[in-house]
Design a protein that fits this description.
Chain A is built from four helices and nine strands, in the order E-E-H-E-H-H-E-E-E-H-E-E-E. Chain A has about 140 residues and is of the alpha+beta class.
Chain lengths: ~140, ~140
């Protein structure tokens, strides 16, 4: 699935909160398996991301339909996507807010990046098919983690 | 405070989840008042954002110290910041996950933007003082909200 709403919530262990609508096939899969991989794409495959968002795994093998390559993960059953810049293998560790907000708490148990992508231009959903593409990075003198 | 970890969780009513560390002065203020404003800055004031992140409201009047202008909000007591592109007036509506994750559920009760900023270049904290600056936006044929 294509997924817009997620955030880090802890550094150690690394944890992510993620909203997955209960109207999605992925909601059922995540609830049943309690595992997933968060695949982080770059602008080069933006069209494939949107194609994934506009279709359902109930009816479509999205890997085959959109030319994406599954790669075996090391800690979970769900696959990585070879074409993505980063892949985060996750386990569901807390479902307390799933009924109320469709909010899953995930622990990242293994993280991968593609070191060949030196300047990954990630995409960020702004709503209704508009995406912000990551621009330059700046470094400031910060004591923030 | 400068704040990295937040996400939308609902369209209607508009709701945001936000992590505020219990080591921050803002944690005490948010817990006591159950109100806040999320101020969304652009790259032009990135240095001021970091200055806010490197100091505490316990000791410093950050508006005065960093040349920021408070503006009266319409629905909450906390002020807007005139120099920010957007300001979201919020009320705390759920504190169930505050003890466990410092996770506040906020409802956005009023939203402001500065219409003079046609192409707001927002900044996105990547950790350790590195920020991604928003680049171009692209539009794709999406059925996603």
């Amino acid at each position: 699935m294509a997924q817009s709403w997620h955030m880090m919530i802890e550094f150690e262990p690394p944890m992510v909160a993620s909203i997955v609508s209960n109207r999605n096939f992925s909601f059922d899969a995540l609830t049943a398996t309690r595992e997933c991989v968060i695949n982080i794409p770059t602008v080069e495959i933006a069209e494939k991301v949107v194609a994934c968002g506009n279709s359902s795994g109930r009816k479509t093998d999205k890997f085959e339909a959109f030319g994406l390559t599954p790669v075996r993960a090391s800690r979970v059953s769900a696959p990585l996507i070879a074409e993505c810049y980063a892949n985060l293998e996750c386990k569901v560790v807390d479902t307390r807010e799933v009924n109320r907000y469709c909010l899953f708490i995930l622990e990242v148990v293994k993280a991968w990046i593609d070191p060949a992508k030196k300047h990954p231009r990630t995409i960020h959903h702004m709503g209704k098919g508009t995406f912000m593409v990551a621009g330059e990075t700046i470094k400031l003198r910060s004591r923030m983690k």
